[in-house]
What we know:
Oligomer: single chain
CATH superfamily of the domain at 30-104: Vaccinia Virus protein VP39
Structural class: alpha/beta
Mean pLDDT: 84
Amino acid sequence: MPIRCVLLAKRNIITLATFRHVLSKKIGKVDHVFEYCAGPGFIGFCLLANNLCDRLTLADINPAAVEYVKHTIKKNRLEDRVTVYTTDSLRDIPLDEQWDVVVSNPPWVPDNN
């Protein structure tokens, strides 16, 4: 599968509904999505809930955020569809993980210019 990319302009603020709509029109449904800097996983769970992916992998450095994600996975019985890692890099993720789409909403720190 060729790599497809949806780019959003720096500093634009969009809603999850808008992002979901753009992704569904530009890429469509995929098998596996990876959300990096996932926090509570809003983007990934939105894509999963709207049937834009079959499987979801999330990663975040914050152990509290990962615990919330684990709670969401368990409460919604998604253990067979969602995986989560506590990490700030790809080093802690198994090499056999492969994704069709990578999404992220990393912390934004304004420059002083």
